[in-house]
Amino acid sequence: MPLPRGAFAAMGTVVSVRLGAAGVHADAAVTAVAAVFTRWEARCSLFDPDSELSRVGRGELALADASVEVRDAYAIALDWRARTGDAFTPHRGDGRIDLNGVVKALALAEAGAALERAGFARHGLDAGGDVLVAPVGAGEPPWQIGIVDPADRGALLARVDLGGRRLAVATSGSAERGDHIWTAPGAGPSPFVQVSAAAADIVTADVLATAVVAGGHDALDDVADRFDVDVLAVRRDGSLLATPGWPRRAKVSGRGAGAAR
User: Fold this and answer.
1) Cys-Cys with 196: which of 49, 111, 171, 182 at CB 3.0–4.6 Å?
2) What CA–CA distance (Å, rounded) separates 222 from 212?
3) One digit per residue, pLDDT tens: the chain, 261 residues?
4) Which of 189, 80, 199 is nearest to 133 (CA)?
């Protein structure tokens, strides 16, 4: 099935671009966003054997000789590992560097900045359910973002309004790709099948959603205590946990919703 105008395939998912005003430059804006994702994928993909990170993993390229983008992304990931008490990590169980936890968010952040420079004051980007929007102006409606129910991919579990204090929401978990997020040795699978985090920026949202999936209830409590982020977590039994700050205008289903500390 062909992708709709304003959407393209990248990083194993579909990236869509929404612009507040269509015009002669809209296609050029989408092309520019696609170029950002293509460059990041060429640097950090572990599925492309020719990417820089794949070459680093095989020992063909020293990390110190990799591009600035790869080295900076790794430094950002290491910083988040320290800030989350190792709940988030840029390493696989075998020690190999895996930057999937930050690369998509970094690409979204760069693409959003490019759209802003190009004069698209109202824009939204969606990369496989990770969403970044521009701040809404006075009198403009918020961006309404749906959170998919992991038990029914055709239904929405909640809605989040973005564009004010929260500009980004990211969702992580095992609903679509299985248990692919590393948990602590001996901890077993995560107690959460899906975690969504809303924050002021997409990197924070993406990292902390992953950290809560990896770290479980302890990580959820820690994230709620120390970071300016709102979290909605779905347990394996289908019940919900939401931090007190989960956006008031989000509509959460009534199935077993509770509050995180």
Assistant:
1) 171
2) 9
3) 445 568 899 999 999 999 876 555 678 888 889 999 999 999 999 999 999 999 999 999 999 999 999 999 999 999 999 999 999 999 988 889 999 999 999 999 999 999 988 888 889 999 998 999 999 988 888 999 999 899 888 888 888 999 999 999 999 985 554 444 555 555 567 899 999 999 999 999 999 999 999 999 999 999 999 999 999 999 999 999 999 888 655 555 555 444 454
4) 199
- Going by C-alpha positions, the residue among 126, 80, 124 that lies closest to residue 102 is 80
**Category of 201 on φ-ψ map: left (φ > 0), alpha (ψ -120 to 50) or beta:** beta
Q: Are 131 and 124 in contact (CB under 8 A)?
A: yes
Give the strand order in the sheet containing 192-199.
7-10, 13-19, 123-127, 130-133, 168-173, 192-199, 230-235, 240-242, 257-259
**Is 148 within 8 Å of 176 (Cβ atoms)?**
no
